[in-house]
Amino acid sequence: MILxxxxxxVWCGGWWLNSRLANGSHAATREVQxxxxxxxxxxxxxxxxxxxxxxxxxxVILPAPTxxxxxFGANLSKLWEDFLQTFVKGALSGYVIGCSAxxxxxxxxxxSDFLRRGLLPVGxxxxxxxxVGTAPILVMWFGFDWHSKAAVVVVMVFFPVLVNxxxxxxxxxxxxxxxxxxxxxxxxxxxxxxxxxxxxPFIFNGLKISTTLALVGAIxxxxxxxxxxxxxxxxSTSVGQLALDMVWAEIVVAALAGSLFYGVVAMxxxxxxxxxxxxxx
Length: 281
Fold this sequence. Notes:
This is ABC transporter permease. With 281 residues, the protein is mainly alpha-helical.
């Protein structure tokens, strides 16, 4: 009971501190904007730890953060192998292939009204297909190794990037395009100097959405067949063994990898679209 009361006090203390920081005179500074989510995350972990210990929640229901940290430290080699198999080989390779193919297809569709009107509805249809239906088929086609996971990721990221890129390439106004024609600019000159820069915010929207889709797709695909390594494989086998601390350790790895991946893409976007209103402070 004491730990439960302490958890309530920690939560109230964290809430009060964050409220003071968020509503204070320095709320707009970068330091405070970074400190607020850190305090919230630390408070959440502390409350989690205290409630699990205070209420004596079984390990098979919800492990404490200390149990997850112990499993993380004891299985670093396995977690690293799973990271390489799922993220680097499956998610990252499929992401690069799918996004590159989508960008090239968007350029082709931009030059053909027939393809644009014909493929975009098909793209919306394929994007709506559930991954639990397409993943087993692709696993059977490409085998149980990382190639099938990359194929699933390609399918998942292709159409979000394609739709956003096509929309971005049509963002420029008719007056802007006419101005380029008056300068005798060719299609590619107009593309690289006008239309591509205007499309970059749309393209990066698709790329950022696809960062999370890629990792989720690779992990889910491993549930339908994989070698004895990978995040999805480890999660499914650990659940069968009631080793929930290992499951949560894999979830931590996936969350860190996905967050860093998204952050890298966001940093590249900020460096290339510094002129866009969304990047201004």
